[in-house]
Amino acid sequence: MKAQDILNCSFPLWYVNFKEVTIDALVVKVPQVFLDYLSTDGIYLPDSDSQPHGDFGDNASTLHSQNLIQSGDNPQSVSPQESRVQNLLKTDDFKEFQDHVVQAIAELGGKVFPKLNWSSPRDACWIAVNGTLCCETFNDICLLLKSSDFIAHDLTDPFLLSSHTNCSDHPQIEYVLVLKRWMEIMPSGEYRCFVRDKNLIAISQRSSQYYSFIESEKGTITRKINRFFNRVLKPTFPNESFVFDVYLAGGSAKPLLVDINPFTTITDSLLFSWEELNGESVLPEVEESRLIENIAFRHILSEGEKWK
């Protein structure tokens, strides 16, 4: 996979072409000071979202990292690391970025789903008070981004598995914070779809839970997604191979595009293996003539069986 193929999956590059078929979102350009903040160790959060451009005061950050504050530490002492972060939080660029984010949250109804160019901090849900990626404040977003290994990958090596091993050959990245309008998505309606050489070859249920209706509806689900792919994505999205996620609310609902990901092992293959998806091993669905419109569809068959 070329580095450009990975860059094409960056949210701001594909969103402009698919606004009508995806979740409403706002994109905020990330200043260098916020990237520096994300790269620091420990989790420091600004005091409040309620006073844009205000003075952060002496306690410019709240420390949420037990490995840096131990019982018995002098509360008046400030480590070099904490001092550095406090200085970042006090800069005009940081405050202006915070203001833009707070305004975007309000414009999107007060609740948002955050991500960077490629990844969401879904591996950090455990640290959120509500246990989800639903954010209502700037601090909610900072906490999730700072706690996520997926976000760290976006920032440090997004072209890890590209064919361009020389970093100097990589395209220039303009990092953005993506804020999607929060919507309640039922896990039973989420599907990951795999495109190889401009052909939709496989669809996987995203949730690991069993849903009885999928077995009887898999033909309809496959045909809807395939029609969506052929009409919307195939003519427009530039990559020969890629992975896209859709949401089907059920009934007569049309597929809603959720995300586009690189066709590479960095992307979770869910109920398939990458050997199967790359054509290195034969899909059982092919041998057993169980393809639907030449597409392999897998879902959790029951509590005791992984897929069919």
What is the topological layout?
Elements: H1 3-8, H2 11-15, E1 25-29, H3 32-39, E2 44-45, E3 62-63, H4 80-90, H5 92-107, E4 112-115, H6 138-147, H7 149-156, E5 176-181, E6 190-196, E7 199-205, H8 213-233, E8 242-247, E9 256-262, H9 274-277, H10 284-287, E10 296-298
Parallel strand pairs: 7-10
Antiparallel strand pairs: 1-5, 2-3, 4-5, 6-7, 6-8, 8-9
Outline the structure in words.
The protein is elongated and about 70 Å long. The two termini are 30 Å apart. The protein has 308 residues and is α+β, with helices and mostly antiparallel strands. The strands form three sheets. Strands 9-8-6-7-10 form a five-stranded mixed sheet. Strands 1-5-4 form a three-stranded antiparallel sheet, with helices on one face. The chain has a two-stranded antiparallel sheet with strand order 2-3. It has helices spanning 3-8, 11-15, 32-39, 80-90, 92-107, 138-147, 149-156, 213-233, 274-277, 284-287; strands spanning 25-29, 44-45, 62-63, 112-115, 176-181, 190-196, 199-205, 242-247, 256-262, 296-298. It has ten helices and ten strands. Helix content is 30%, strand content 16%. Residues 50-74 have low confidence and may be disordered.
